[in-house]
Amino acid sequence: MPKDSIGHLIPGTVSPTRSVPSHIVRPEYVGKKGPSPFTGSDVYSTEKIELIRDSGRIAAEAIAAVGRAIAPGVTTEQLDQIGHDYLVANDAYPSTLGYRGYPKSLCSSVNEVICHGIPDNTVLDNGDIVNIDITAYKNGVHGDTNVTFIVGEATEEVTLLVERTREALARGIKAVAPGRQVNVIGRTIASYAKRFNYGVVRDYTGHGVGEAFHSGLIIPHYDAPQYDTVMEVGMVFTIEPMLTLGTGDWDIWSDDWTVLTRDRSLTAQFEHTLVVTERGAEILTLA
């Protein structure tokens, strides 16, 4: 994703797929067109939740390692190398690598890229923002998280977008409680975003995660009463609001992955994997 003459991203050069040591267990979908249908439950035992927490911790630590390297002049390809190396050093498989053909070990979404940006030879500039999305697979379960970083120093408008998107995630997590429908999460996030006239991306959502990378459970980030699954103690899913300075509408590149705001406005995202508890929610993706 290099940039054109007016600063908008264009597709870049993607390096060959990185190797993963043979002793690291692969998710079942690696080498296939897609994952097998998930027939399990989004509610997990205490023992399984601890395994998801371990995968989530590794993912969070990998993002922290990537974040320390983010600076003007660094390429997203270099960031992918750092994330990949951290995961495999901890005997975790990068969940995105080979998922429905995705070629890299993390997603790096710069500026107007909403999600699923493929690391390439894009050089980060001062004032850019970049979302790093990493999922680690270990002991048969995935832990999924992402963070938006500011490259160098950004304008106040952009800095506030990043801070408020982080706050939107925090508010969404606080809305979690057993007995509530999942749509209360989206209603809470959308209400907060509306205060600042931010766009809310609707078509990319939070999801059930654990034994499956995406279980089929949908967690909306907007007011969506049709998603009426009732939260239960032990249920595991992600919340990952995507807010924009303009529209929530999007386009997708011919790579079938890179999703951009239709008006090319800047966008930020934050994500945690969490478990529903009797008192609310506990975050499972903490370093």
Question: How would you describe this protein?
Answer:
The chain is of the alpha+beta class. It is 24% helix and 21% strand. It contains four helices and 15 strands. It has helices at residues 46-69, 76-89, 156-174, 183-194; strands at residues 93-94, 107-110, 113-115, 129-138, 141-150, 199-200, 206-207, 218-219, 236-239, 242-244, 250-252, 259-261, 267-269, 272-277, 280-283. Strands 1, 2, 4 and 5 form a four-stranded antiparallel β-sheet that branches. It has a three-stranded antiparallel β-sheet with strand order 3-12-11, with no helix packed on it. The longest helix is centred in the first third of the chain and has 24 residues, at 46-69. The protein is globular, with a radius of gyration of 18 Å. It starts with 45 loop residues before the first helix and ends with a strand.
The strand count comes to 15
Low-confidence parts lasting 5 or more residues at pLDDT below 50? Answer: none
Rg from alpha-carbon coordinates: 18 Å
- Overall outline: globular
The SSE order reads HHEEEEEHHEEEEEEEEEE
Summary?
The protein is built from 4 helices and 15 strands. It is of the alpha+beta class. The strands form 5 sheets. Strands 1, 2, 4 and 5 form a 4-stranded antiparallel β-sheet that branches.
